[in-house]
Structure formats: structure tokens, C-alpha cells
Amino acid sequence: MTETDADVIYLAGPGHGGPAIVANVYLEGTYSEIYPDVSKDAAGLRRLFRQFSSPGGIPSHVSVPTPGSIHEGGELGYVLVHAFGAAFDNPELIVAAVVGDGEAETGPLAGSWTGIDFLNPARDGRGAAHPSPERLQDRWPHAARP
User: Are 92 and 1 in contact (CB under 8 A)?
Assistant: First the structure.
């Protein structure tokens, strides 16, 4: 990404991936830029930890207050459709979406696989990549197939 100056977005399904995204945004500095009271020192890290998954604090899933988030987490099944939307809207954007095992079993995600039918790498740019249901099926045999 750095060598080619590629525009890349990482989308995590909701649920338990939220802490990893918040941690990365904190470590790279954006979280502290947006929320200066969560500074990049021991006191700021303590504040970040104490507000995680507590009333009035940070939700346990990726959500609107998460810097860089383009979708609201909480309900499973929507990460893939958001990834397709990001690719359609930004032909030069490389979109990497991670689908969790619980999310793979939902109706919304099963419907999202049809986005493949509308995605054309020649027209939609380098961000157009087909998800691999075979890899998903190898890992979770009970997962919905397109």
C-alpha cells in the first residue's frame, strides 16, 4: 500500500472485531486527534480502556464514533454489502472486507453475495475483487452459499 500509494479501506463485520479497529485507530493516532482527552500516553490508554463497553463509552462493535467507520455495527450481516457499495462508489479504492463466522450465517450476508453479479473489474476499477465463498465454505461448512 505504501509503495504504490494505494487507497485501501478495511471493513470489519460488526460484533467482536470492534476492539481491534479501535486499538488500531488509537495506535496510529487518529483516535487521539478526534478525542484529545484520550491522549497517546498511559493516562489516555487508561481512559480508553475504562470507557470501552461501558454506559456512555465506546460500544463493543465498530460504530459511528469509531474514526474511519463507514457503517454502524451491532447487527450481523451487512459488511459485505457495505464493501460492495464502497467499491462501486470509489473505483480506485481497494476494499478488504472480513466476514465473521456468525455474520456468515445471516440472511443479509446471503443476499449480499449477489453483489458479485454487478461488480465488473474492467468497469469498476482495481477495487473490484470477488469474495471467495469457497474459502468461507471450507472454514464454515454451514455458512450460506451464494
Answer: no
